[in-house]
Amino acid sequence: MTWRAIYAWRYILVELDIRQPPGGVARSEAEALVEANKIGYPVMVRPSFVLGGRGLHSSTFQLKHSHF
């Protein structure tokens, strides 16, 4: 799924008044940390190249992200 598809999906949800938890898209570790700080911890971290929940991790604070 591309970032364009993600934003298109968010637009549809807003138009239909369907609530969704905050989220973000990052292309680097630095961008991921910025997005996580905007959202607030804990966050769920998932690589874009996996299907389902494989590779999904939760993080309660910034230091845990450094190994992804």
Task: Explain briefly what this protein structure is.
By secondary structure, the protein is α+β, with helices and mostly antiparallel strands. Helices cover 35% and strands 9% of the residues.
Topology:
Layout: H1 3-15, H2 29-39, E1 43-45, E2 57-59
Antiparallel strand pairs: 1-2
Task: Give the SSE string.
Answer: HHEE
Question: What is the approximate shape?
Answer: globular
Radius of gyration: 13 Å
Number of helices: 2
Q: What is the name of the CATH architecture of the domain at 25-68?
A: 2-Layer Sandwich
| Estimated share of beta-strand residues | 5-15%
CATH class of the domain at 25-68: Alpha Beta
Structural class: alpha+beta
CATH topology of the domain at 25-68: Dna Ligase, domain 1
What is the β-strand count? 2
Strand order of the biggest β-sheet: 1-2
Unreliable stretches covering 5 or more consecutive residues: none
N→C terminal distance: 19 Å
